Amino acid sequence: MLGVLAVVGIPLLLVFAAILAPAVLGGLARAQRTEMIANGRTISQAVLSTYIGKNFPYAVYVEDEETTAEYLTTLVTDGYLGVDRGFFSGPRMPSGKGPISREAPLRSEENAWRIVTRVWGEDPAVTPLLVTRNFASDTLDERPRLSDEPPFGRQGVVVATVGGSAMFLPADRLDEEWAALVAEHLRDRRILPP
Q1: What does pTM read for this prediction?
Q2: Spatial contact of 90 and 112, defined as CB atoms under 8 Å apart
Q3: Which residues make beta-bridge pairs with 13?
Q4: Better-predicted residue by pLDDT, 176 or 58
Q5: Where are the domains of the chain?
Q6: Residues 137, 144: contact at Cβ < 8 Å?
Q7: Are 59 and 48 in contact (CB under 8 A)?
């Protein structure tokens, strides 16, 4: 009797595992994308809040030699964003623990984001402000490319915009979706390294 259960039960268990595993993994991937979208939206809103009420032509202006991690450290230490270092990480990345300070800044390897430089306050709401680090292009006017880097590799990229929205652009639609976000007058914008 026990032998019959083993002969029938083990293959049945393997069939269920084969059916359920893709659904569970797909659900996990969607949850990770959703979290990154929410984090990107939060970061973009914090970035824009730094310039509200200031008479400055750029909504975001960072020096070309800075990294995104340095910029995000300043955002946290200046009180615009109250999060710890794990907030800036993503899937398949080391997630640091603890607070961010000037003495213990966010490190590039912990940071899943890249920021677009010279974003104007009058730019269209769909102008990209942040992209995940697997976005391999270094300016907005390059054809969008993805790398194998985390958080999403060549599957797609999370983009957060000046208007405060964020979305996941899958690789198979990246060219057309990116063209809809990036207008001709945005072509001079550099994307800082993580």
Answers
A1: 0.82
A2: yes
A3: none
A4: 176
A5: 2-63+113-186
A6: yes
A7: yes
